[in-house]
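Worked example 2:
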Amino acid sequence: MFTHPNIDPVAFSVGPVQVHWYGLMYLVGFLGGYWLGVYRAGRPGSGWRKQEVADLLFYVAVGVIVGGRFGYILFYNPGYYLQNPLEILYLWTGGMSFHGGLLGVLVAMWLYGRNTRRPFFAVTDFLAPLVPVGLGAGRIGNFINQELWGKITAMPWGMRFPGTDLSGQPRHPSMLYEAFLEGLVLFVVLWIYSARPRATGAVSGLFLVGYGVFRFLVEFVRLPDAHIGYLALGWVTVGQLLSLPMIVAGLWLLLRTPGPSKPIGSAQ
């Protein structure tokens, strides 16, 4: 069994300003995504210019932050934030929803595509392999904050979280499971799959299926939010319910009759 190293969530302070690890993980995700996006844009026939990557990620950043925050508020804890509206702005304390962030990014990508005259799925296909970097970094932020841990376990890799769990019992480090599956594994799969020309929408579909399946599985060992609990059958969670439409949409994109392959992100 292991014990969480009890890392201070504040990475450093500059006068009265505290910089939290959680926020730094988002910065790591965006910078990593930018570097990989520039690399992908530099590939022959990518259909993208390196200068466009910064504009794309600006749209993504706004979509992630706005969608992720309001998704968490609407899906997980609307009552609390109605009573404490100022805390909507307390991003450094955590409380971001991936599914809300995804919706925010989809809207941002639609706006970006409209402004640059790129097909929607051409934009999302270019972006999809970059996203797992941010997902993995975000889950490391959850680990540092000692949040989103899992059920009690007797597995040898179980971990005690002394900073937040007063029971002192070892639990599944579910945020590390997600960092590995949604971050590393999903990145490798998408990066390899997108290295060859694919039908428009296929890379986006694989991302939706991959994330949806990984999240659905991890939810079996991850504790649901205490104020929500399980929705049905003693095991169905909000995360699983929100992941099902992703899997269905992703399968539709993968299994639909493919059109002619085009360079990823090419304008039409």
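Confidence is low (pLDDT under 50) at residues 263-268. The chain is about 55% helix and 5% strand.
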